[in-house]
Amino acid sequence: MPVRIDKNLPAGKFLERENIFVMDKDRAEVQDIRPLKIAVLNLMPNKIATETQLIRLIGNTPLQIDLCLLTTKTYTPKNAPEEHLRSFYRTFDDIRRTGEKFDGLIITGAPVEKMDFLAVAYWPELEEILRWAVKNVYSSLFICWAAQAAMYHYYGINKRMLDKKLFGVFPHTVLDRNNPLVRGFDDTFFAPHSRYTEVEEALIAREPDLDILAKSDRAGAHLVASKSLRRVFVFGHGEYDADTLRGEFERDRDKGLGTALPENYFPGGDPARRPPLLWRAHESLLVCNWLNYCVYQATPFDLNAIDEIG
């Protein structure tokens, strides 16, 4: 089934070439189906690339998704075209004013991880969204920096700086096969990471409401979920395309940051060679499992009932 998006959203054109089923909202309105309402707070600088990556993943399910793209009101991204934001994005104030509720919420990473949370320009707004989500969203999926931010907000577990940037593609091991989020996973799977900070595995393990579902010897805890599955934390970037780490490496190089080549990424360590895509299947499965087991099968048909659950 398709993801319902605005017919002019640039991601739609890219995904149609890949045979990812997307449907404009005019066509979707004539179908007698209650779609899952999924909001995406996109904090990444390249909005269009991130939209495309996430829609590709959530569009690979038999569920119809009504997508709502969100941006911050308190901070205007410098690299995002104003016309694009005005045409396709809403703010938290918009949805709060209308009293909307959502089956699911995805919050992306952001290039602010070296900053203390309280120093981030939109931190008060993000905390407001996280408080709002408790009674207005059934299940939330947090990616990379957003996973660290949500871990801090909900559980008081802070991030810490690493000695150097964790950068590359690393093998991960499934720890709890009984959890539906990892249903169908191989014993070992790969995921990209690109960050200067981490949330220590030992601190997560001490929190009784949290389960570490997958980890890496090199990258630490990767997939964590609350007991209720209403909060899912992914500390890597499984949504990335094959060449995304290359782009980040070249950006860092051009800024003179001295970032080393991403580990386990370029064949033979040669940046001239095309990196293989090793993580798409498992990330697609993770998102499908989240939508199926944490959202579709658990969320109330009447979204107003989330108030009682929250």
Key features of this structure:
single chain; 310 residues; alpha/beta; Rossmann fold; 12-stranded mixed beta sheet; 11 helices; 12 strands; 33% helix
Describe the structure.
This protein has helices at 10-17, 25-28, 47-58, 82-88, 92-98, 123-136, 145-155, 201-206, 244-254, 280-296, 306-309; strands at residues 3-5, 22-24, 36-41, 65-71, 90-91, 102-107, 137-143, 160-174, 188-198, 210-216, 220-226, 231-234. The two termini are 29 Å apart. Helix 1 packs across helix 3 (47-58). The radius of gyration is 19 Å and the shape is globular. Strands 1, 2, 3, 4, 5, 6, 7, 8, 9, 10, 11 and 12 form a twelve-stranded mixed β-sheet that branches. By secondary structure, the chain is of the alpha/beta class. It has one domain (3-241, 277-305): Rossmann fold, CATH 3.40.50. Helix 3 links the parallel strand 3 (36-41) and strand 4 (65-71).
List the helices and strands and how they pair.
Elements: E1 3-5, H1 10-17, E2 22-24, H2 25-28, E3 36-41, H3 47-58, E4 65-71, H4 82-88, E5 90-91, H5 92-98, E6 102-107, H6 123-136, E7 137-143, H7 145-155, E8 160-174, E9 188-198, H8 201-206, E10 210-216, E11 220-226, E12 231-234, H9 244-254, H10 280-296, H11 306-309
Parallel strand pairs: 1-2, 1-4, 3-4, 3-6, 4-5, 6-7, 7-12
Antiparallel strand pairs: 8-9, 8-10, 10-11, 11-12
